[in-house]
Structure formats: structure tokens, C-alpha cells
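chain below, 362 aa
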Amino acid sequence: MTLTLAVDTVRWEEHQRRVHAQFPDLVPVCKGNGYGFGHQRLLRQASRLGMDLVAVGTTQEAARAEHLHAGDLLVLTPYRTWEAPVALSDRTIRVVSSPNDLTGLKGRRVVVELMTSMKRHGLTQAQLPVLREAMGAWQFEGFTLHLPLKRVDGLGGAEEVASWVRHLREARLPIHQIFVSHLTPGELDGLRAEFPHSAFRLRTGTKLWLGDPEATRYRSRVLDVVHLRRGDHSGAGGWRVSSDRYHVLVSGGTSHGIGLRAPALLSGFRARKRHLAGIGYTALNRHLSPFVWDGERRRFARPPELQHSVLEIPATARPPLAGAELAVQLRYTTTRPDRVVEDPEIAPVADAGGAEQSRTRK
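prediction:
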């Protein structure tokens, strides 16, 4: 049973070189599941690109990454005085985002996070005065701002960053290095022109690792195909099928992230309409799967199991053969494939009839 992530390595790496050329001071993000590729591959690639600093999600990820990356490591999860201690090298930089957590990092390298319109965490302008005394105990590396993808109140990302840098300058705080997110090369050029003595460094993962949709593809292997007649029982629960159909057993289950969905924020009438239609199918046990066959995403015959899923194909349709590969439309940041393989001629998986199977990326 194998869920495979196929990579056109030449194309994948060419995209990264283009992004790096656009953002020479780029800070690549390698956190969570490693965007589907795994931490080892991403850290190795960051080293090949000559990137001196890599951002990871947690202190545990930093500890595991120390032997994979020779440069510095920025831990994005903010420091908390009550957190579980993890032994980290002097190459690790911590983020502080709360006045309550300014102590406990004496002699350590520190970046201070500032509150943005993202409204997640960070110091506010009113809290800046408490920084000066704490900074004397650190090796201060700079400030960081996490900007929202969608702009609010008509304020652009560059304008929000510029406003903060002016506040910091007025407070006589050091502004030699500012880490930012979700800005364009033009926006960064504008900031550098206004603040020539500050280094603005873009922090990104999705743009770097997943920016070329045609460089990677998920594939699943068909393990078995069973022809069921109306009235037959199927599955561990002994469910009775209501009509003739095929059940197709494919690699990929909950341990890979398949069948696990996070809640989504709905915006607009059409999105809500689609969601309500989905609820109707759910009430009928008609759950749409990410597996594609004959040009269509197929429905689960029953809930995915740990390492495999069962799809439902009508008896009037042509089923795949055992051993065939299906395209799988998966979210990269939540999927853990069994293997990542090199495929210099990556292409959409096609069925025997020649119908290309599409996929989406998120």
C-alpha cells in the first residue's frame, strides 16, 4: 500500500531558484509535515540554495533540524516561560510576542513579533516601552510581522509594515532587520527605498515549495476491485449495498491525512450553497473522495481506514484495474505520503481510455 508524491525535481528546483532570485534574502519555512516533502528534503534543498536561515515551526522541529541544516534556525512558535524545555544550539533564534514572556531568554538570540491586522499574537505599539530593558539581556536579531493574505480596511501589506517601522524608529528601537510575509518584490523594493538602513527579509514556505503546480503530483495505487451485487454486504460493519457497483480499494487513508478535513470559513452565497449541497450528500453517506478516476472525483464507499480507502464506482462504468495508478487531489500541508519519488516526466495520470485526471492544489 503506497501513496506516492512524484516530483519533477528539475522543474521543482528551477522554480525555487526563480523565487530566490526575486527575494535574495528569503527565509524558507520548513514546518509541520514539510509541505508533503518532509523536513529532510526541504532542509537539504535550502542548504543547496545557500540559505543561511531557515524557519521551523516548533522547538522540537528545531532540535531535529540541527543536524540537517548548518545555518541558523528561526522557531516561529513564540517563546513561553512555561513551555517544556528543549535543548537547542546557539544557532537557534526564538520569537517573543508577549510582555509576559520577556524574561527567561537571557543571552539567547531573539526576534520580537509585532501585532498586525492578522490579530494573532505580537506586541502592540503601547507595549513597546517594556522592550528596552528586556532587550539588553538578549542577542537581539530584529522584528517580525506576520501579515494576512487578505488585506483589510484598505491597508496594503507594505503600508502596514512601513507604519510599524516608523513607530519603532520613533521609539528609538533598532530596526536593522525586519522579517515579513506575503509581500511582492515591488512592495519590498519600496520598503527598502524608504528605509535604506533596514534589511527586509521575506519568510515563506508555500510560494517556495509549492509555487509550481505542475512540478509535483500525488498518486495512489489500486489494490483490488470487487464487483458487488445488490443486497451484498460489505465492510467491517456489514453494510448492505442498494445496487450493483464496484468497490475499488486504493492506497491512502487517515494516516496519510485522507478523509480529515478542517472547518472552512465560508464567504458569499455560492460558497454557502455548495456547502449546503455537501451536507445533503453527507446525510446520505455520499462523501466525495480526493481520488480521481475516468475524469471524476469518486465517492467513498465507506469511511477511509488507516492506510487505505474504498471508492464506489457504478456498475455501468468502467472500473480501474488492480495495479493501476489514480491521481489524488490532496492538500500538501496536511498529507503524509509513504514515499517521495523522482519523476522527470511527470504528467497527469491517464486512464486506459486516455482521459486525463485533474488535480487541485491548496
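The chain has eight helices and 18 strands. Residues 269-283 form the longest helix (15 residues).
thats it, cya
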